[in-house]
Amino acid sequence: MKRMMAWMMTICLIAAWVLPVHAGEINTPGQGTVGLSSSTPGSSDVNSPTSDGGNPNQPGNMDEAQKKEQVSPSTETPAPASPEKTAEVSEKPEKTAEASEKPEKTPEASETPKETPSTEPTEKPSQIPTEAPGELPSTSPEGTPEASAAVSGSPSGTPTATPSVSPTASATPSASPVLMNNRSWNNRQASSGDTGGVEVILMNALPIHDNSTITLNVSLENAGSEEVYLKNNSDKHPVLFEGLPAGTYRLRITEKDTGSSGFGFLPYEQDITVERDTKVAEVYTGFVELDGVKYEQGAPHPGAMLIGDVNRDGKIDDGDKDAIMEAVSRGTNGAFVGNANENPTDLNKDGQTDLVDLQYYANSKEKIDGNANTTATLYGRLSSNAVQVNIENNTQVVEGKPENLLKNNGEGVTLKCQGSDGPISKDAPVEIGFNLESDSQSSQEAAEITFDMKETPVESGLVTVLPKDGEEGKDEIYFHIVNGEAVRAKGAEGFALYAGTEGKNGVLTVDLGGKIAIKKVTFKITGIKSGENLNLAKISKVEFLNDTENRIPEPEMNVPTGFNGTPGNKSFRLTWNGQVNITGYEVKISYQGQEQVVRVASNQLEVKSFNGSKLKNGEAYEVSVQSVNGTWSSGYCASENVSPVITSRPDAPDNLKATGGYRRISLTWKNMEDTDTYNVYYKAEGESSYTRITGIDQNRHVLHDLKDETLYEIYVTGVNELGESNPSIHSEARTITIKPAQMPNYKLINESNGKGKVSAHITNVTHGRGSMENSSLDTDKNSALGTVDKDAASYYQILDWDDGAQYPSASKGLLFTLDDYYEMSYIAFAEAEDIGWYSGAYVYYYDEEHQNEGVTAQNVSLLQKTDENGRKYYMIKLAQPIRANKIRLGFTRGNNLYNIVISEVNFYYYDSLENDILALYADDLHTTLKSDVTEETINELQKRLDTKDAKSGEYHPERDMLQRELDNAKGLLSSGFQDVVEISPTITASKDGHLGFGGLNAWQPLGVTAYEGEQIVVYVGHNQLKTGSNSALKLIATQYHAESGSFAKEVATLKVGRNEITIPSIQSLACEGGGALYVQYTGNNENDRYAVRVSGGAKEPVLNLYGITDSAIRKERITAYVEELDAHVAALEENHKNIHQMAGENNKVNRSYEETNCILGATDIMLDQMMLSVSAKQILSGLGKGTVSERVDKLDQSLTAMEKMMELFYQHKGLSNEAGAPASDRLPVQHLNIRYMRMFAGAFMYAAGNHIGIEWGSVPGLAGAVPVRTDADGKYLSGNYFGWGISHEIGHNINQGSYAIAEVTNNYFAQLTKSRDSNDTVRFTYDNVYKKVTSNTVGIPSNVFTHLAMYWQLHLAYDRGYNYQTYNSYADQQANLFYARVDSYSRDTSRAKGNLKLDGDKNQNIMRLACAAAEKDLTEFFMRWGLIPDEETFRYAGQFDKEERAIYYLTDDARVYEIENGTGATIKGRDVVSSDSKATVSKNVPNEVTVSIETTANQEVILGYEIARYSYENGMPVRQVVGFATENTYVDHVATINNRVLTYEVTAVDKFGYRSEARKIGDVRISHDGSQDKSMWDVTTNMLSNADKADEAVEDDPCEPETVSDIYRVIDNEYGKDYEGQTTGADAEIVIEMKRILEVCGLKITSKSGAPIGNYTVEVSLDGSSWTTVKTGSFEDKSGSQVAYFENADKDPWVCTYDAAYVRLRAPGQMKMSLAEVDLLGPSGDSISFGVKEDSTQGAVGILSADYTYAAGKKIPKGSMIFTGSYKGNPAYNVVVLYDEDGNVVGGVDENNVLKSEQIILADVPENGMLGEVSDGIWIYWIEPDFIPEDLKGKIVRAQLYRVDQALTNEGQRLVSDTLPLRIPNTLENITLQSGTKEDGAKDSNTKAVTSTPLQ
């Protein structure tokens, strides 16, 4: 009889997916002590003084009475105390992988001399074990007493034995150790007691979800219970029941009801008989596979808890299986996703019911049906209270308590030789004893003793065992410790009886050769192999074992060997030798301190990412692999470094910066990916060719030995093995002179007394922390006279970034003492060489009023100056003059340069000229003159300014700046001043912290451009603050047309009043340095009123429309701006000559005019939400020709379009300033900033941290947009916003961070600007959308625009207004815009319903946010798109009603229809698909099915038709959606299955997303050659081809497009042209990703030109990581097609079929491939049909008229109901099963679930005797007369043909074919089976062989 076919499916699942449920750390107990019993007084004693002696010098060995005895000696001997009852002891010590901590230092006791030296064996230790030492306990040891307690009635004190001496060699045998040493220390006996115990060790052996916990209740009859919590690891959890009287106890382990669905374990029960020992039972949650473990009576095995009771009826049966399979059938891709806590069919709690859960069930059911013994084999050990632990006198306990050694609490004990700090040795051993005697027993039995010493493995020593009847000193049994193993010896000093081998895992095992009675054991350690301290011995646990044959064997380690890494392009492939007794492997990848572990099933892995990021070429990744067996692991093999290889030339280096020094230039640039080295090219000004420096391996370099005071042009290239990159953008730098900086001599106080001499009026200079260099004047430690010696070669230096300026101190800086009090306002200083810039100075002075304590100068400013030779010096400017004779100066750098150098310092007499000129003004902005200022006043000041200093012959050092002040004053006498910028206090970053996105800035333009090194004055006015006060304004300098990495610099925090500024260098590009100036308000006070004016620089056209709502004012400002642009652009080149080419010979702006780089070309336009910082000429160009008025209108239109577009964007983000908007939804006050910038490699535009970069050619488009005009409902009428690229980049900067996916979600905003509410105005195609949402694939779409459609459809589903509709109130905005709610909830989750958590990844977050915004369960929508919700997402979505609409089909056109017509015409639930609809198979294309649809519904309301097809497995229909048709005809290319029957179903979907009633429209049978459909495939390769395409970035795709490999040619169904590729050195390979799991059995290649590939390897994978080799061979050197059919590992002569999602074709040893096309073939063509004649069901069913003998002794009885048919396949590997229309096996089952029907398959035996593939054969299925059901007539039945890979085991079983349905007639015909030939239609007795395949 045959068993249910469902069991065959279970076996199939076992073969397809091997469940890793093998044991992990089989004998490793977990942490903690369970069930400690109370102890009697004094029971903590181990070695209390007794008449037998003892060692009281050990921690924990004395009670309080004994401690008193130490202080007051007494002759009284205390009575023996009962030792403490102990906790459980595990059977074997735990393997520890962590390094041990160093134990805390313990006070050492005085050394106790030995009586007689002993000699130990001298075997040489072998190799130290490789196990890492474990962690020592962290508890502090108790102190060690100084004196000994009284012993045997003698007075207390130090023993008087003779001290030990070094052992000497002797010709005569030594006496035994007992004779040589007093063994009385081990005489203390164990307590008496007749109780035993039960220890239960629990371990999880099933892989479960990491967040899941198995909660078990362990109870022992009449002894208590305890809860145990098991996680997804191999930790063992012991539960100990102690103090049990002899008897039998019932152990019961049950799964605790935690309120969730639970795991479905059956209760575990076992009777355990206890005597005086402890019985140990190991029980695992699952089965283990290890050598020696069999679940049979008499074989050692752990207990197993059976999982699979899905319906919780207390048994595991078909009801549980049906529930699991029903759940799987309801899911997609073989998995039903649901909340693990609510889904009882999800046995491993990973959030889905799939084949894994069915496997769990199948394992348990198989063991039940096989009568497996699932109760634990017990073994025994001595209880902890049966053994007394004693410590030898000269051994000190450093840590732990000896009495715990026999307890399973993991504490252990650490020992050392008392009085010795050296390693443990023969001369300094440690010794511990175990006494098994008691008052009631003279000995106890044990067969084996184990000492767990993993942390400090023992190297040498001696174990001495005294048997029951033995006499000490005569009858001991000795075990020498040789190489970590205890080997039996003839005597204490005799040779070992056999050679030792290295101890296993640090556990010393003493095999007593069988159970013997023992009185005492001593363990003497004379050497430690390894550990943190070789002077310490750590014993973690000791066990005296019996029944050792019943212990569970530990697994072999099986550490993988042959580990090898092969690099690829941003990937590498790992392989290693396969191991036995394992279920998989774990690969560990480490990179830059981070780690990732990947679990795989086979011995290879392809690695393409690390922790979610792509691998980096050229970077070293450390990799290793270990074997795993369930939760056990072997330990990792030795690691290797693998570096992915580079496949293209590097990109040009970005951000090159050059800084000039004396005869050198320092270079830095961005460290580029895929770059091995760099080349630097440079040339001096005037030279024609570049000098090249190659092989630079860092992103920095210094050019040496250059010309002095020379301008150099430099560029850099990157180099890798494939070539050299394009050049970087050119930079330039000027070398400086060694000439000292020429500081002003105007009114100099400390004039020169000659070089190297102290200058005039200086009496002393001292320094604090630093030192003087090259100064002969400074012999004293703190002297610094070299700073005033007029010699630049002597200087003060401190290697720090600050010396008393940022952090003032009397010990910092320089202190100058003058010979008198001098009035001054300027101090100058210079470096020995210009190595950096200073950002601040500090002045502390001593005047006549403060001669002792000094005063800090306020409002000190520091100006960087440049002399005529290009040398830098600095002027310290005091706000008010001081009169002082001592001055301390402090200095600070501004660029984190840790090197302050001061060469010379000058002091200047105060000149009132500057203050007199500045006193002309009545305000801080210098826009108003005082009332008494006259022309005569100004002329007098002009005369003074034009007068040179009589002594130095120099003008005032600030002459140019003061001249501007006088010129300004002259102008104010006749007219007002207008160039004042009012700063808005509402633009501040401090108000935008709620947004959840960055990308904004708070800069406000000043209308000035300034060049690098230019001296300007910035005036700041405020409505309340006094002059000199710190303002809340920062000055920002920018670089025009800059690189993205460095384009702006914060120059200074401005003070109210006058700020003198030197414009810094920002970049070193070979173009003009400088750009527009901005201020940033950093406060948060809307009442602040700041005004700013700049003196210096050049005027920049600025259009400020911020906050302007009056249309007339707006038009007026735009008009003025356009007119200014006209004049400004026309004069650009002339102004360049007048301003820049007069800036100084060496200034970077003094160069030929370049319209793209001249900084005078900058302009700024500021709107409410956007600032444009671009080219004035290009804005003007965008306005085109026409009158000023026409161009004003055009600019107004374009800027209005920008404002409206931003309003649209921010409305969709839920941002508003309207009433009712919460603080979290307020509009940003900062603006987006589009800037004219240089592009990096491959970019057309880009989005960065606080700006969006566009290039020259994109600027005109900013002036050419037209506002979108709509009707009252928001429907588009006219207008056009900006290009896709601008919106795309804006999207990057305003994407909500919680769910943003770059290049996808930012495109939502671009799509908003382009969609006209129609399908033809979206960037994606709905055909691709429908392919994705009906593909049943997992994972996001690879195409970013198709991916965008997922987000867009949510907008379509829930936004009921037209696309451009905006709303006047916040409430309407929230009510009508889906993403307004999404983003609002993202910023404030408390506003969403339920407990919304955004703690998942971006996909989980968007799913939860979408459910919150829709208030619908949208999990089906997202799963259709390939996303898998996690447990939290299911939990959150579950509180809402499920969305009943099929919103994954919605389109723009459909939404418009609903808006305009309403939903009244819905077809929801209606029967509108006509019965005239049909499905037909093409006559010419056998796998093409045409679905013709007829409907009774109004076609106008129909969006399309969902096409599903049903296949049948196990008799049950399995539904799969396969497409969505928008026409009335749909063509289904069926490539994934063959020789199968499909039932097609059509469901109409209306434009509102509602479904009609579904209609099945007919059955078809598919039969084709097996070629798989390629429409969903992706293909990748490690080869490069000359035909690979790398498109440039363009407006519609502004980010760098990825290179498109020509490899897609091999799957395009075009067979006429070859793909030709080559690798850079690795084996060539092609990887095909099918996007779903397909059955594949062969690979076909087609080559047009011949020589496609020689040797090949074909591999398949389900996950793209774990690969299985299915075929190796060699293709012929010819054109055309060739097929490689897959085989099994044994290379049997038949074709094997595999489930695969990936197929890889490799060419070992070959770097090239030439292929036109690759095809994958499906199953091998097995087929089944009813009837023995083609296209006829004649004879398919009837009653057998006579007995039919089909084999000797086997027949089909007369009267049987028989079914017959034909098949093709392999009869040895085929099985036929019949099912009725309800999914029941035809014939039924008996009470034992055994089939009542039989089947045979008949075929000819080939001449070679092996059954192989046959083109046809006969199958017969029958029900014997007694079992024919009465109700079978009239039923519809189907025959299904299954195939297996292994006939004996049914491995690889799968459904391969089925028949069209057959209705059993009410009147059955008689059928006679006759002997005859093939033509007779049946096999007869002449058949050469008959095969009967039993059903199971």
Report on the structure:
By secondary structure, the protein is α+β, with helices and mostly antiparallel strands. The chain is 13% helix and 32% strand. The protein is built from 22 helices and 98 strands. Strands 1, 4, 7, 8, 11, 12, 15, 16, 17, 18, 19, 20 and 22 form a 13-stranded mixed β-sheet that branches. Strands 41, 44, 45, 46, 47, 48, 49 and 51 form an eight-stranded antiparallel β-sheet that branches. Strands 86, 87, 90, 92, 93, 97 and 98 form a seven-stranded mixed β-sheet that branches. The longest helix has 25 residues. The N terminus and C terminus are likely disordered.
* Low-pLDDT segments, ≥5 res: 1-181, 495-503, 1876-1896
- The fraction of residues in strands falls at 25-35%
Shape: globular
Largest sheet: 13 strands, mixed
The SS-based structural class is alpha+beta
Cα Rg = 45 Å
The helix fraction, in percent, is 10-25%
